[in-house]
Amino acid sequence: MVLVGIFLLFLIPLAVGLGVGLDPRRERYTRTRTSSTIAPKSTTRSSLKPSATPSVKPSAPAPVTTPGSLWQPQVGASWQIMLGQTLIVGKGQTVTPNVDIYDVDLFDTSAETIAALHDLGKHVICYFSAGSYEAWRPDAAKFAKTDLGSGVDGWAGENWVKTGSSTVRAAMTSRIALAASKGCDAIDPDNVDAYNNGNGLGLTTADAVDFVKFLAATAAKYNMSTGLKNAGDIIPSVVSSVAFSVNEQCAEYRECDKYSAFVNAGKPVFHIEYPGDAPNPTAAELTASCTASGAKGFSTVLKNMSLDKWVKYCNGQTA
Ligand SMILES: *[C@@H]1O[C@H](CO)[C@@H](O)[C@H](O)[C@H]1NC(C)=O
Ligand SMILES: *[C@@H]1O[C@H](CO)[C@@H](O)[C@H](O)[C@H]1NC(C)=O
């Protein structure tokens, strides 16, 4: 396994660099939140989880109907994303970096931490995978075998899911209710771009549009806004349904222009680049990430692939 991992670690960037064979998007799945991009997440994740049981079990609030009142983050808002390491902030504590918004894992982050972030005047976006099944999640049993598609390349224990299935949608509705119960201001549903990947289920861009609209409408019932993760091809169809973009590597793949549609609509692009030399990116890497064509107004962060706490901003600030 380790040998295979090491092999892939070198093969994938090489193949991408050469532009041959592999779809470049293969390696840009956001599930880069593990401490290694190749290691099976089941192992890595469980080692990151001290004890998955939160000390307070929040109860899900009833859905609310508050059209027009959803939180709209501003273009250029400062943010941090931490998915591969659990953020813990106690009541009354401060947090570094002192940014406007934290994007954190829905399951791993406690309601106490989210409340402490709110006390500090911050907004919280809660991440979960919407378009893939992850075997190690506490609600994995809710998924039906018949709804699982191909395995997600490079990620053991993860499969694309039939996004139109009522079972899948019920599981996502529960996750959204969990996010509301924990106090999240918005959701960051990942893996909505199955159409870009060998998903084994025939999922198309039309399916992605329908799924994103479903997720956003469901989150809105709980007064939470929704982001579009990557999925640049469907931006024109969903930009009015979501409040922000979370993008990975648009500078590296030279597609920030596509995502600038969000900024033009008055909505932020939370933009992540993964410099090869993290946590010591070169000046050239910083420049390439921060001054990419089309990325004007983006909220850019340089992160390690593990999406741990290390972050570097375009102004040189690091934490
Ligand atoms: C960056 O991530 C790699 C694995 O993805 C890990 O081995 C390394 O310790 C991380 N570096 C820092 C500074 O967090
Ligand atoms: C919904 O969220 C908005 C923005 O955060 C907030 O101003 C409003 O009070 C919330 N509405 C309800 C009913 O909680």
Structural overview:
This protein is of the alpha/beta class and 319 residues long. The protein has one domain: Alpha-Beta Barrel (TIM Barrel). The chain has eight helices and twelve strands. The longest helix has 17 residues. The N terminus is likely disordered. One 2-acetamido-2-deoxy-beta-D-glucopyranose binds next to loops. It is an enzyme of class 3 (hydrolase). This is alpha-galactosidase.
Unique ligands: 2-acetamido-2-deoxy-beta-D-glucopyranose
Q: Distance N terminus to C terminus?
A: 33 Å
Low-pLDDT runs of 5+ residues are: 1-57
Strand order of the largest sheet: 1-2-3-7-8-9-10-11-12
CATH topology: TIM Barrel
- Taken as a percent bin, the fraction of beta residues is 15-25%
CATH class: Alpha Beta
Based on the coordinates given, report the CATH architecture: Alpha-Beta Barrel
Mean pLDDT: 85
Q: Whole-number radius of gyration? A: 18 Å
**The CATH homologous superfamily:** Aldolase class I
The helicity comes to: 25-40%
The coarse overall form would be globular
Protein name: alpha-galactosidase
EC number: 3.2.1.22
Region (Disordered): 29-69
Pfam families: Glyco_hydro_114
